[in-house]
Amino acid sequence: MPLATKLAFGLITALAFAAPLRAEQITVFAAASLKTALDRVADDWNAGAQDQVVVSYAGSSALAKQIQKGAPADIFISAAVDWMDLLQDQDLIAADSRVDLLGNSLVLIGGQGADPVDLGPGFDLAGLLGQGKLAMALVDSVPAGVYGKQALESLGLWDGVAAKVAQADNVRAALALVASQEAPLGVVYATDAAAEPQVAVLGRFPDDTHDPIIYPAALVAGGHPQAQAFLDHLMGRDAGLVFKKQGFTLIDRDE
User: Fold this and answer.
1) For 28-61, how does the pLDDT look when each residue is reduced to its tens digit (9 = 90+)?
2) pLDDT digits over 123-156, tens only?
3) Rounded to an integer, what distance in angstroms lies between the CA atom of residue 29 and that of residue 31?
4) What are all long-range contacts of 16-24, with beta carbons under 8 Å and residues at least 24 apart?
5) Across all residues in the chain, what is the average pLDDT?
6) Per CATH, which fold does 23-103+214-250 belong to?
7) Residue ranges of the chain assigned to CATH 3.40.190.10
8) 3-class SS of residue 88
9) What's the CATH architecture for 106-209?
């Protein structure tokens, strides 16, 4: 057998028995309000990709603190810029990978069949609550709670309801309190309300009553390099269609 043929045969044989490329698990830490849409995006990705995505949901503040403690995440998606800023200041994310992914809005919800209200200064929210509780995410740390408190303060309603607020660990937990009728009213994102058929939107808080609701995303420092492909996918058209269907707005990209 000629030398060239032997070499070619040897190369083919080596390739045939070479170990396949190792698939990695890409771990995404994401704000709880993303669950419905992001589960769909991750499922679509996992159906055709070698590197599989697993998403862990919680309040943005809790996730950021886990990353600070060394939790093995590859991508972080926050519901507020301040928690991403904190990690960036500590070099815990890859700053050059950071993107503003999505936007959202804030609504007041009640049980099915509840009548719409006009959310403005002078609205008697305390009277509408009666002896009931107002479900909100943690108002001093979880973005949905922070935005909600800002909105209520801006409208002059906070002092009248502060003692009636039932604080939950994240916005989906606040949503569940209203869906299960444990609380008559709640403040959540519009996308959360769209995901739960047991609640109705009573009114939308004006955008100028709270800070802009922005979801930044970034690679976590030291994570798997393969995570960049999924981050790119999140900014792409297919994922964008899923997010828009759930009620999110798309930021810094062609829609």
Assistant:
1) 999 999 999 999 999 999 999 999 999 999 999 9
2) 999 999 999 999 999 999 999 999 999 999 999 9
3) 7
4) 21/50, 23/50, 23/51, 23/52, 24/51, 24/52, 24/224, 24/226
5) 92
6) D-Maltodextrin-Binding Protein; domain 2 (3.40.190)
7) 23-103+214-250, 106-209
8) helix
9) 3-Layer(aba) Sandwich (3.40)
